[in-house]
Amino acid sequence: MTSAHSFFLKTPPLKLFFKAAIPGTVGMIASNIYFSLEMLLVGRFLGQTAFAGGNLAMPLLLIAYAVADMIAVGSSIAIAIKLGEGRKEEADRLFTTAVITASLASTLTSLAITLSGPWLFSLMGAGDALTKEAMTYLWVYTLFIPLTSLVFVFDNYLRISGWVRFSMVMNIVMAFMCLSFEFLFLYVLKRGIGYAALGTSLGMSITCIISMLPFIKGRMPLKFVHPGKVTATLGEIIKQGFPSFLNNTSGRITSILMNTFILRLGGEVAVSIYGVFMNIDSIIVPGMYGVFDSLQPAIGYNWGAERKDRAKRIALCCAIALCIMCLFCTFLIVSFPESIFSMFLKVDANSLSLAVHAITIMGLTYIVRWISYSGQAYASAIGRNKEATEISIYSALLFPILMMLVLFPLGLEGLWWVTPSSALLTAMAATLIFLVKLRK
Length: 440
Prior knowledge:
Blueprint: H1 3-10, H2 13-46, H3 48-84, H4 88-115, H5 117-124, H6 128-148, H7 150-160, H8 164-188, H9 193-216, H10 230-304, H11 308-335, H12 337-344, H13 349-362, H14 366-381, H15 385-407, H16 412-416, H17 418-438
Helix pairs in contact: 1-10, 2-3, 2-8, 2-9, 2-10, 2-11, 3-4, 3-6, 3-7, 3-10, 4-6, 4-7, 4-10, 5-6, 6-9, 7-8, 7-9, 8-9, 10-11, 10-13, 10-14, 10-15, 11-14, 12-13, 14-15, 14-17, 15-17
């Protein structure tokens, strides 16, 4: 029995939570915080136009990374279940196929998005200055994405292999490198937004290479083999990872629509306010994601080994942790909105007053957001992809678009309430799905 197998099957649930979820959460936040730190530096050193341009481009860019994340999550769940069932050869084929596919698929997606960028930004109502900043940002990331997309893939495989602390350390190192490169390019060398993207890409690329080394040297339970039946393997990966992909891409589409409405109603200032909130969200959500993602292999192991009561106890620990985390985040945002916004941008008094009001409203989102995410992550971990996909659609696409249509006539004030109101509706739907379909 491998050390990872023993770790997931024998460690008491609460102890397993503290040994896996906490390092995983810290690592996940660190692995995603560089985007927020990047925008923070862009806002402080390059100004509002560059900040708004970067935030217009970010949702488009993250769609390409969502493709790699789908493959990483989908393959990780499937691999964990197969390892729990003792089917190592199939797990190795999944691993090999996923690495190759993630790089190719994310690269093609990023290239397609970047080539259509000028048209998309024009539809959103962006002027020449905003479009120029956004396109420069996109092109730099596209050049590096064949390698940087694999950061998410290998991070998942490190956790599956029981290297949770190593994963956390690598994510912290990556955040430090990205921040250091960006500080050098933006503050010391006085370069533009393209160099902000270059700094992050360099940090991610170096981290990816280091993370690959244990697998290349044969130190892991997983190894590279001939992919075998690629079509069947890819189908399994996509099936398992589609709920996560749908949640990510739908959320990006929602962000693009929100940016479009906000840009037309409030201009650069309003886009920047929403951008600040989305950067806050990009720190909180990875923390939520990290709790369940770090223990999804454990849930999958135990589910595959027919230890379902233990899998449920692990999931309960995760849900309680998410509740505490989200309530604490709401308290911070509602209590200190001015300080949080001012970290990213310096604006006049009227713009600051609008920002404080908007961020306070949007910060209420996290009071209930943990409910829908817990339901989706649990359903996905045990292979109930239909229910996980259903919650994802409600959370990231259906309810946000519905509330946009309902609240748009109220102007900017209505748009600020889109996120918390859609989160409440999704929490209600997720609770109903759990009680009716998942509890037994």
